[in-house]
Design goal:
heterodimer, A: alpha+beta, Immunoglobulin-like, 2 domains, 5-stranded antiparallel beta sheet, 23 strands, B: 570 residues, alpha/beta, Rossmann fold, 3 domains, 16 strands, 48% helix, GPI transamidase component PIG-S (chain B), endoplasmic reticulum (chain B), GPI-anchor biosynthesis (chain B), glycoprotein (chain B), transmembrane helix (chain B)
């Protein structure tokens, strides 16, 4: 023991003589935001966004020394050479027709897509290992993702972060969904552990599993991408966005009237902002106050901002949690003047419906209806991921618009293996069918797409003839804001906007 | 899960029916043949053809195709590893002013160490030029002299006349591979220093014994602390700040790591590779309640005490945040806990009720890492004007503790007290060369023993269960491991410590790779009794008439031979 202290003393003496400089480590920032938006159908849309921006170059060694950025995720991202990563775990279906567009759209179940760096070798193997590591991180069964149910879509996805060259090579992209995946507390807890304040302080204390999962739609998201540090884009930063999207049904939660409050939605008030956060805001969308059900906010909002986007004007009441002097629990409540009022529903520009037609167990068809509410025609890129046990007949594809049949501009269909569609010597091999095309869409009437398939060739142990079949959602996407926080795009308006939404049946 | 050939059971019924029908036909025709006076030669040849196809060709073919693919392993060589000679040869040179004294020292030391089972020490006298010792002003001059042994594993015992002017001790161990001793030192004192500080024979013996007979012997203290042998280690440095709104830490952790840890890691690079990572944890509490103790000094005349027994409970809430999802290397965790001013100063109390000496509140968890409790200075805490308070931790103090803990965790042993013997203080380097040598020695023995035990248990397993597939990769690993073990033992004997260590590491890794290969788990073919149960109903109905017809064939041929000889006689 004495020898240890002697050694230690010697080391201390030696070190003291050499160390004299202090330098500033890389800076990182953390912001937290909450958006509450009453929807015309009587639902409440709650959207949390936790953003960590780290001013560091996107290298493997950068993630060895983390501060606010979660080290567990940084190690995975660095080790597997990931350029951009998007994960979402969703329960429920987003009703675009009645609810409008969410901030981040997500397909039901688990959805994972990643852009790998140009220097990555053997992308399929890395993709499988990445899915395995993420399934351990988030306690989700993402390990079922492998090359048999992953795609490399060419037109649908574009990198949302900085890229080295404008032409994105889709062979570095991998996309997979697991529509059967269930989201629960088991996923919420490790997701919350990735936050710097770890559900102990700030807006993340509102994420209580009992209330979060008592919703019509709940979705956890993790989005990582490189961004520009400044306007001139001379240096890179790493941005991580953790999002929670919730849609509450006030008929279930309310006691007969439409009043809502933070305590009612989340079970607990807010005790303060996260001390590590630079910005901590709550936005309440008060646009419907003029047109639909009128409500009064209590306490009165300190600031109201107006945002014009795509021709629509929205008003937001902003509460800056850091500036508030909170004593005890802070609660925002909305009191409605009448008991139950439903607003007039204006469907959004593009929304989709899917349904199955046909009768009997032998064959059937899938119809996808795309509704265009815009005043001019829209181009649509359509992506569909069909599992191997649903044999589709591509020659029966019929696209009707305005009563006339139209032909797609580009139809790309790929089968991973060389087998024909009707074969069922599977033994573990899967096939996918992907269609990308660009029809010119006229407006007013919905366009229909019809595809026929066989039902009788399902193998018993794979799906069961009376078992519900899970087919992945489709991805119609019809142009991207550069800012990280929710607040900045509110005050800008641009001509075109890239939008992607996911539908399932 | 046993995987069976698909065709077997599905075609079993059909085959049996066909074979049964066929055997019936054969019997009918056999009866007809017996009734007829003459047996047609063609029929006999047809029977012979059946015998040839089924028994001569078919049976060996079936045996070969239902065989399990097994690469032949060197079972005898692996069994012979039990008697492997792993004594370490070492050349120790002694240099004295007086040759007679030198020879006597050599003879005495040879005598003392001839009973050593693990070492084969060869002492010999070395004569140095007088000029080196004449104009020496400090021991550091001697350290930089050219006669210092450079080969890994060697030692030099150097008599320095007038050692008393530098130190009061009789024996002083240098930073490289030299031990300086004064003119009054006896061989016994020298052997004591060699035995307990430099050679560490007891530690070696206990390490090997603990591995070969774990129920009888346990590791010694330094062995219990030492991280298990691996090719690469992860080092994770964590700063825990439970209340960042009250206390803000300004600390450039990556820079501190680079300045302090990198030199030691570089010196330890022959042993293993290291990856250093760091993170900050907020809002993580100790989960234990320290006791309030009033005293005269400290901030506000009180401090908080953490008893030694509750220290293990501090590690548990931290474990959640320390795991890595990508790396499988053993991880050394170093944690700095900075309590806020309201809970400071926090001190550790030993079991006897006294505070830890030396002003450093830190503790080590064997094979896991170490935790330092770094209290913010009283100056910062008494300054109530600024909120949150800003504090820059004392990097030197914290990193010094981490370095000392890291040395212990890697297996660099603590030195016991020997009277009138000491070591030179570390100034320019963090690790003495002889310390690295003794670490290499103990790791070599550990890795060799582990490789030998793994190979022996693997060979026992594979020879007992005859239908585990041994593929080429596993076979290569086993051969490589056996070769490396034998080569390492030979190199150890002749004193090539660094090459022996590399070979022993290669042997250890190959043996582990072979043992934990997932292909060994797949029992692809089913056990013998099931194999026979599948094939006997298939072949037996065919074989019975064929075997019975052998009798007829033999009778016919012998009849022909007899008739031919009869004809000849006639």
């Amino acid at each position: 023991m004495k020898a240890v202290l002697n050694t230690f003393a010697c080391i201390v003496l030696f070190l003291h003589s050499s160390f004299c400089v202090t330098s500033v480590p890389s800076k990182d920032y953390f912001d937290e935001e909450l958006l509450l938006k009453p929807l015309p159908s009587g639902h409440i849309y709650a959207y949390f966004q936790f953003t960590t921006v780290w001013d560091v170059e996107f290298e493997v060694t950068s993630f060895h020394h983390c501060h606010l950025f979660p080290r567990a995720l940084g190690e995975i991202v660095g080790h597997y050479n990931v350029q951009e990563l998007h994960i979402s775990l969703t329960g429920g279906l987003w009703r675009h027709e009645t609810w409008g567009y969410p901030v981040h759209d997500a397909a039901p179940g688990a959805e994972l897509w990643a852009w790998f760096k140009e220097s990555t070798t053997s992308i399929d193997k890395t993709w499988k290992e990445l899915a395995g590591a993420l399934s351990g991180l988030l306690c989700a069964s993402l390990n079922f993702i492998d090359s048999s149910n992953s795609l490399s879509p060419e037109f649908t996805f574009r990198p949302t972060g900085i890229v080295s060259s404008p032409a994105a090579n889709s062979s570095y992209l991998r996309y997979a969904t697991l529509p059967r995946e269930i989201v629960c507390t088991e996923n919420l807890t490790p997701w919350k552990k990735l936050l710097p304040c770890d559900a102990k302080k700030g807006l993340s204390t509102l994420l209580n599993a009992g209330h979060i999962h008592n919703t019509n739609y709940h979705s956890l998201g993790l989005h990582l991408r490189p961004v520009c540090r400044d306007v001139g884009c001379s240096q890179m930063s790493v941005e991580l966005r953790q999002t929670v999207s919730l849609v509450y049904d006030m008929v279930i939660l309310g006691n007969g009237n439409q009043d809502w409050s933070i305590k009612k939605l989340f079970g607990i008030g807010l005790s303060g902002a996260c001390p590590l956060a630079t910005m901590s805001n709550i936005y309440i969308d008060t646009t419907l106050n003029e047109t639909g059900a009128h409500f009064q906010l209590s306490p009165t909002p300190p600031a109201i901002i107006t945002s014009t986007r795509g021709g629509y004007e929205s008003k937001f009441a902003v509460y800056d949690v850091k500036a508030l002097d909170i004593d005890g629990m802070f609660n925002i409540a909305a009191f409605y003047s009448s008991s139950r009022v439903y607003g007039v529903n204006l469907p959004p520009v593009l929304y989709t419906n899917r349904y199955i037609i046909g009768y009997g167990q032998e064959r059937g068809g899938i119809v996808t209806k795309l509704h265009n509410g815009h005043w001019k025609a829209l181009d649509v890129v359509y992506l569909e991921n069909i599992p191997w046990f649903m044999p589709l007949y591509l020659h029966t594809l019929k696209i009707l618009a305005n009563g006339q049949e139209i032909k797609p501009l580009i139809l790309m269909d790929m089968t991973l293996t060389g087998q024909t569609i009707n074969s069922y010597a599977y033994d573990g091999m899967l096939k996918e069918l992907r269609k990308h095309f660009k029809p010119v869409r006229p407006h007013k009437n919905p366009a229909e797409m019809l595809l026929q398939h066989d039902k009788a060739t399902h193998k018993f142990e794979d799906s069961g003839s009376h078992h519900k079949i899970w087919v992945d959602g489709v991805n119609p996407s019809t142009l991207q804001p550069q800012s990280s926080t929710f607040r900045s795009p509110l005050v800008s308006s641009r001509q075109g906007c890239y939008m992607q939404h996911k539908v399932s049946d | 899960m046993v995987k069976q050939p698909e065709s077997t059971y599905s075609r079993l019924g059909g085959m049996q029916f066909i074979e049964g029908w066929f055997s019936f036909l054969w019997w009918i025709s056999g009866q007809w043949f017996l009734l007829s006076a003459q047996i047609d030669a063609n029929r006999i040849f047809a029977a012979v053809a059946y015998v040839v196809v089924l028994i001569v060709i078919g049976l060996p073919l079936w045996w070969k195709t239902t065989e399990v693919y097994r690469v032949s392993l060197p079972y005898s060589r692996i069994a012979a590893l039990d008697n492997l000679d792993v004594t370490q040869g070492m050349n120790i040179s002694i240099s004295t002013l007086d040759t007679a004294r030198g020879d006597k020292l050599v003879a005495d030391l040879n005598d003392i160490f001839k009973t050593s089972k693990w070492f084969q020490l060869t002492f010999f006298a070395l004569s140095l030029e007088k000029k080196y010792l004449a104009s020496v002003h400090s021991l550091e001059d001697l350290e930089n002299a050219p006669f210092q042994p450079r080969k890994v594993g060697e030692l030099l015992l150097l008599e320095v006349p007038g050692l008393a002017r530098f130190t009061a001790n009789h024996v002083l161990v240098g930073l490289k591979r030299t031990v300086y001793f004064s003119s009054e030192t006896t061989a016994v004192k020298l052997s004591e220093v060699l035995e307990s500080w430099l050679l560490q024979e007891k530690s070696l013996r206990q390490t090997v014994a603990a591995m070969t007979a774990p129920t009888e012997t346990d590791q010694d203290q330094s062995g219990r602390r030492r991280m298990p042998a691996a090719e690469e280690y992860d080092i994770m440095i964590t700063v825990v700040n439970p209340e960042p709104e009250k206390l803000q830490l300004n600390w450039d952790l990556p820079k501190a790591v680079q300045v302090y840890l990198e030199p030691l890691l570089h010196e330890l690079s022959p042993v293993a590779r290291y990856t250093v990572k760091s993170q900050w944890l907020y809002f993580v509490t100790l989960n234990v309640q320290p006791k309030l103790v009033a005293d005269s000094s400290g901030y506000g005349r009180k401090h908080y005490a953490l008893a030694e027994d509750i220290l293990p409970q501090i590690i548990t809430p931290l474990e959640k945040k320390l795991a890595s999802h990508v790396s499988r290397n053993p991880c050394l965790n170093f944690v700095v806990y900075v309590p806020p001013c309201e809970a400071a100063p926090l001190h550790i109390y030993r079991r006897q009720g006294v505070r830890v000496k030396g002003g450093v509140d830190a503790f080590l968890s064997p094979r896991w890492g170490g935790i330092v409790i770094h209290n913010p200075s009283s100056l910062i805490c008494h300054n109530t004007s600024v909120q949150p308070k800003e504090y820059s931790p004392d990097t030197v103090a914290v990193m010094g503790v981490f370095l000392a803990q890291f040395r212990l965790l890697m297996g660099i042993p603590e030195l016991e007290e020997i009277s009138r013997a000491d070591r030179l203080p570390l100034s320019v380097v963090s690790l003495g060369d002889w310390e690295l040598d003794s670490l290499l020695r103990v790791r070599t023995m550990e890795q060799l023993t582990s490789a030998r035990l793994t190979l022996q248990s693997l060979s026992q397993l594979l020879s007992e269960i005859s239908n585990i597939v041994i593929n080429d990769a596993v076979g290569d690993s086993v051969y490589r491991a056996v070769d490396c073990v034998e080569r390492a033992a030979k190199l150890l004997k002749i004193g090539q410590l660094d090459r022996a260590f590399n070979d022993s590491k290669e042997a250890f890794l190959s043996a582990e790779a072979a043992f934990t290969d997932p292909s060994l788990l797949a029992l692809l073919y089913f056990p013998d009794d099931q194999k026979y149960a599948v094939y006997i109903p298939l072949f037996l109905p065919v074989m019975i008439p064929v075997i019975l017809s052998l009798k007829n064939i033999y009778a016919w041929f012998s009849g022909r031979i007899n008739s031919k000889s009869k004809l000849k006689e006639d």
